[in-house]
Amino acid sequence: YSWRHTPKTQLGEFNLTEIETMLGSYTKVLFVRDPFQRLISAFMQGMGSSPSFSSFVQDFLDSSQQASVAWKPLVNLCQPCLVQYDYVVMFGFLRQELGHLLQRAGLPTDSLPPEFTDTQVQWTYSWLSEQMFSELSLQQKQQLSHLYRWDLAAFPFSSSFLSD
């Protein structure tokens, strides 16, 4: 189906037979990250015009139907119940899982990121998550937990602040 495939073609533009054929010929890898950490990252990267994290979250909640890909629920973006992914790589275990993935693909594993990355990033996000979560109202916390409920059910984000 390469005649219909362009860089902007989305999977939903193909019929079911075409989708099954294409997906059957690929190694499918899904990279997942705690949805609350994705929101923090989007806020820190200035993806909104809000002065505070709380107002950023409220803007997001008010317009969640038109939300950026950066913070939409993963189950809506990646369809993990429909697409049978060969690998699911969790943020926080990136180095180990990428090493395994590269090895399985027969690629050299000597070009992985430095080992300290995951540990330092996880500690930073843990601290940052705690600070940012404390800024939110109870209603915002409940709305976020509800919005990301399927992500939290589909992936083992055991330490997510939204799981509580």
TrEMBL record:
Its EC number is 2.8.2.-. The keyword Cell membrane does not apply. This is Carbohydrate sulfotransferase. The gene is Chst9_1. It is found in: Golgi apparatus membrane. It is a single-pass type II membrane protein. GO terms for molecular function: sulfotransferase activity. GO terms for cellular component: Golgi membrane. It comes from Ciccaba nigrolineata. GO terms for biological process: carbohydrate biosynthetic process; dermatan sulfate proteoglycan metabolic process. Belongs to the sulfotransferase 2 family. Keywords: Carbohydrate metabolism, Glycoprotein, Golgi apparatus, Membrane, Signal-anchor, Transferase, Transmembrane, Transmembrane helix. Pfam families: Sulfotransfer_2. Its main location: Golgi. The keyword Nucleus does not apply. InterPro entries: Carb_sulfotrans_8-10, P-loop_NTPase, Sulfotransferase.
